[in-house]
Design a protein that fits this description.
About 45% of the residues lie in helices and about 15% in strands. By secondary structure, it is an alpha/beta fold. It has two domains: about 150 residues, Rossmann fold; about 110 residues, Rossmann fold, CATH 3.40.50.
Amino acid sequence: MIQENKNILQKNAPIGVFDSGVGGLTVAREIMRQMPNEKIVYFGDTARVPYGSKSKETVTRFSKQIVRFLQTYQVKTIVVACNTASAFALEELEQETDIPVIGVLKPGAKTAAEVTRNGKIGVIATEATIGSKMYSYYIKELNKQVTIYGKACPLFVPLVEEGLWEDPVTDEIAKRYLTELIDIDIDTLILGCTHYPLIRSTLGRIMGEKVTLVNPAYETAMELKALLMEKGLLNGEHPKLGENQYQFYVSDGAEKFKRFANSIIKYGILSAKTINIEQY
């Protein structure tokens, strides 16, 4: 059972964000852009990545450990910035903690259901996210008339982590993955893994102008902002000089994480600390 956070929720308390590794930084980046006054405590489970090939039970156990860690910082809300953890663990996390928990699946599904014109929606993601069929479930709840086509794209994550965002190799693999979705004539494509926004320009070029790309990282940040406003928890004041606005923690490889993070977040990550997540 996740220990309940008994502290009174404060506007200036941080937002907890976690992912299996570095992909969730695209979500953290959107939160920074949309809510520049908010503090963030981010955890990347770099020792146990990837989650996409693990069982539901394992991913849920890992997620609960991370939530316990984040609650030591009295976070006011938790963002599960990982599609696999959102698919497998979100329901249990919502039941077992007394602060708001949001995932990245529902916001992306909601937007896709709203913007599709021909009712054909593609989802690209990890094997686990596609296998969970959670995007289909959420979209069908909102719009029963649509057809969802899932496509696992396992090679995108290592390509992104190697920094091959604009590279002929990434182009070639993207064409192979996406050809069948182009042939089906989808008009909406959900980037169902938090790494994928980093190759958005490549995906957009291959899919063509008629296909709307849905970025769940952006949609999640906007849903989080609406939630904080609704609960009166949006921070109206910028952190004071000397306050540590953004804190980053990992379970392994802090230096590598820091290099990658600084390549996508331009707000200056001073440090990333390694912690033993197994003790939570």
